[in-house]
Write a structure and sequence with these properties.
6 helices; 0% strand; globular; disordered N terminus
Length: 123
């Protein structure tokens, strides 16, 4: 029991030592999201746009797996699968930048708060 308390206290001390003066939590990482070529971003937008008619008439039990397959195939085709695994919001970042309306339409059709929230099996 004493060793568990010591371990807990040690872990808390290490976490707090990473904080700067006056900070109560460690600073957030400042690593920018991975870059995706404009042509790859446009390809994702085009694929999402093409899937929308089906997604609008299907239930989430069908659209969510279809969305995952689309993103995984896009990631493989463009060599960004590892980037998606480490930063799921990459799909949101790319579509917000490249095709905000298509992203909005996809979120509505997929009934998701974010595209990242719909990704499963990556990571």
């Amino acid at each position: 029991m004493t060793s568990v308390r010591l371990l807990t206290v040690s872990a808390a001390a290490v976490a707090l030592s990473a904080c700067g003066p006056g900070q109560s939590t460690p600073p957030a990482p400042t690593t920018p999201p991975p870059a995706v070529a404009n042509s790859a971003a446009q390809q994702l937008c085009d694929q999402l746009q093409g899937a929308l008619p089906d997604w609008r008439i299907q239930t989430p039990s069908l659209t969510h797996p279809a969305f995952n397959v689309l993103v995984q195939a896009w990631g493989l085709q463009n060599g960004v699968t590892a980037q998606i695994v480490s930063h799921r919001a990459l799909v949101d970042d790319v579509t917000t930048r490249q095709c905000a309306q298509t992203r909005s339409d996809a979120l509505k059709a997929l009934e998701l708060p974010s595209l990242a929230a719909g990704l499963v099996g990556l990571g």
